[in-house]
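INPUT
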Amino acid sequence: MFRIRLFSTLCVAILAVLPRTYAASSETIILQLIGTISKSVSIVFDSSTIDLGDLTQHTAVDFTIVSNTEYIITTPTTGILTNEYGGTLGFTTATNNGKLTITPNTIGPDQPLGTYSANIEVTISAI
Amino acid sequence: MKTNKTLWIAGAALSVCGSSFAASDTVGLTGTIAQVVTIDIANSSTSVTMTNNTTTSENMSVDANVPFTITVATADNELTMANGAGDEVTYAFSVKDASSNEILASLGSANHNEVDATWTYNVTPSGIDGSTDAGTYTDTVTVTVAAQ
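OUTPUT
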């Protein structure tokens, strides 16, 4: 009889304590935020056209590079200017400190007259 | 001698069966609903869209049968995400209810009454430009709900 009463008392005590023991009066969660920024590069010339003047001097144009990673810039080192009649004149290029410099080859006495033009494609590539 | 003892027991039983009185008692019932404040999210890891002013939202379920306080903090108490190189991207963090009412506009704490709802937490990066280093950015945010 004593054992039964003791067992009953223990059960009542446990039931009285359980709700308070297991009640969640606070909770904490940990959030892990993850985001990825992809590689991107861009190049913009300050001017879409370079006026080379009388083709006797070098001319430079500024450009702006925006990159969030290492990159390689590729520029043709030489090119050909062509006039409206098919005459040609070579030139060399160089890039340094955000400038593209065009240097026409020396003009000889037999260089055809005319307006010479060419396009240069400068490529920037993320590594 | 043994026969006499048996008759005495039988007489007692007859006496009980033949009684006509009623008896009653009252038992009181009591129950306690304990304080419960819980928060639950489907995924502990959130993939944030790394575009300026673009908000990434995720649901979180909040149950509370008492007024409670919700607290949001980052590991370094800064609204930044950093990669291994130390580059950082600022972001805003908020908690909103289903009607887009702000429960918490930024890091910190706010009090709220009893609730059984699904809220959202929202992460909005800013200040990203073309020179923001490419890579993976992470941060840890701790959200705590506690009965007041």
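end of record. Residues 2-17 of chain B form the longest helix (16 residues).
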